[in-house]
Design brief:
The complex is a heterodimer. Helix content of chain A is 0%, strand content 54%. By secondary structure, chain A is mostly beta strands. By secondary structure, chain B is mainly β. Helix content of chain B is 0%, strand content 50%. Chain B has strands at 4-7, 10-13, 19-25, 31-37, 43-51, 54-57, 64-66, 76-78, 87-94, 102-103, 107-111. In chain B, strands 2, 4, 5, 6, 9, 10 and 11 form a seven-stranded mixed beta sheet that branches. The chains are: A mainly beta, B mainly beta.
């Protein structure tokens, strides 16, 4: 089965530092990976998508990498702020008729 | 404003009752999904639909039913057969099955 694994432990960092979250996948490489942000009691919000043939994608303070050798995607938030505190979900899509699979998410807590 | 809405935000049900959760989208998306999220857990797929009048079971369909009579609407019924229905329910939509998903704000169901 296609699995997505994210660190279940919360990541605590100081404001201004770079937060790095990890998403590992099993079996064959997905066509693309997506990252979402979820605040407590709300629905996830799409942030970034990275395709299999892309090494890196950026959007403002966000950066996503895709390493097919390590079967891993890293999600970075530079110059983190307390407002970045949330749970971040990784999702893999294999294309075709397969539904995207979501990881459990990693909680990020940015301390002022 | 285009978007996806869910109602109600909070729902209380007595044991043995069926309840229906509403999901509407005006994004002109073909695919719609229902997920269940429990504390500390990831998103678990209940049902999905790629087209009007057609839907497929997800990983945890037992005790749930859906309909897709209109492109914009995908209501979920939680039946009395669902043993542990208390959870946060999320509806999502996407252009096609494998595309980025847009989530509604969620409905929190509590069984009294």
């Amino acid at each position: 089965s296609q699995k997505i694994e994210q660190n279940s432990e919360a990541l605590n960092i100081q404001e201004g530092k770079t937060a790095t979250l990890t998403c590992n996948y099993t079996n064959y490489s997905p066509a693309y990976l997506q990252w979402y942000r979820q605040d407590p009691g709300r629905g996830p919000v799409f942030l970034l998508l990275i395709r299999e043939n892309e090494k890196e994608k950026r959007k403002e303070r966000l950066k996503v990498t895709f390493d097919t050798t390590l079967k891993q995607s890293l999600f970075h938030i530079t110059a983190s702020q307390p407002a970045d505190s949330a749970t971040y979900l990784c999702s893999r899509s294999s294309g075709g008729s397969y539904i995207p699979t979501f990881g459990r998410g990693t909680s990020l807590i940015v301390h002022p | 404003d285009g978007g996806i809405t869910q109602s109600p935000k909070y729902l209380f049900r007595k044991e043995g009752q069926n309840v229906t959760l509403s999901c509407e989208q005006n994004l002109n998306h073909d695919a719609m999904y229902w997920y269940r999220q429990d504390p500390g857990q990831g998103l678990r797929l209940i049902y999905y639909s790629q087209i009007v009048n057609d839907f497929q079971k997800g990983d945890i369909a037992e005790g749930y039913s859906v309909s897709r009579e209109k492109k914009e609407s995908f209501p979920l019924t939680v039946t009395s057969a669902q043993k542990n229905p208390t959870a946060f329910y999320l509806c999502a939509s996407s252009m096609i099955l494998t595309d980025t998903q847009y989530f509604g704000p969620g409905t929190r169901l509590t069984v009294l």
